[in-house]
Amino acid sequence: MTDLPSPYLLFLGDTRNETYAKTAFGLRDWAPETVIGEYAMPEATVTLGLERLTPAEAASRGARALLLGIAPVGGAIPAHWLSELVAALEAGLDIVAGLHQRLADIPELAATARRLGRTLHDVRHPTVSFSTGTGLPRMGKRLLTVGTDCALGKKYTALAIAKRWRALGGNADFRATGQTGIMIAGHGVAIDAVVADFIAGAAEWLSPANSADHWDIIEGQGSLYHPAFAGVTLGLLHGAQPDLFVLCHDPTRGTIYGYPHIPMPDLADAIALYEQLGRLTNPAIACAGISINSSKMSDPERQDWMARTSDRLGLPVADPLRDGVDAFIQRMQTVTA
């Protein structure tokens, strides 16, 4: 588990593509209270619409860390960023990153941090040793977001459900399992960086026993239908022991993203597979509904697809960003009662 030093100054590097800045946009949208402003190199064209501050200005306003809000291709820090990161350390800020490359493995950054007494936070790399999963039942309620594919709204759905449940007076925690989620929550486990034998154990550790009315809303990773990442998904499913899961889906995708030879699964088949495999550690697992990413659909197309799908599956269907998540909340209330 990582506990991060906020508030942050969000670093956008020299990026010209908003897709690479999803971490920064996630912080802006879901944890604005942890963000002081943004900082970018002159070549950058992406902006979050926040106040532009230098590291020194941000530090003077109470910022504690420069957070790398972009994911460069290949997961490595470009050499021409180093002077900017060193300047942030010299201004009195820690550095937070969720990349495959460790900040601590870059000699110039490591030496500067040691000299100044600053900390380099490599969010993607666990610092805790986990046990293997036990499969033992534990108190409390858990909801896991799962998917037909990757990158279609599992994190946003989990965040929206946790926020709405708390707004209604319920007791819930968002449990982050990816680097962006960890940066939003301030703590969590990057589950895809855990050694395979310990993924289920890490999920158990992340969502421990709790009071009977408490919900852990666990961010899902990967998909059982993804040829590269299904193993992470299965370990997380077994360790989370969810009472409910929400299946996330993009209706406009015909194939697994990046794998045009693999068709998207039928939703009924996907629900049945998640239930079948989830019963190993929670025999009462059930689907709470379908969360869709309808950003590429017109409103009439979306409404028609949702109505037909809900009728076919007998489950609520909603886009959290356009419809809210009350349909899923109602199922949680039924389970809690």
TrEMBL record:
Ranges of residues in domain D-glutamate N-acetyltransferase-like C-terminal: 139-328
SUPFAM superfamilies: P-loop containing nucleoside triphosphate hydrolases
PANTHER family: DUF1611 DOMAIN-CONTAINING PROTEIN, GLL3100 PROTEIN
Record protein name field: NAD-dependent epimerase/dehydratase family protein
Pfam families, per database record: DUF1611, DUF1611_N
InterPro entries, per the entry: DgcN-like, DgcN-like_C, DgcN-like_N, P-loop_NTPase
Domain annotation D-glutamate N-acetyltransferase-like N-terminal: ranges: 50-126
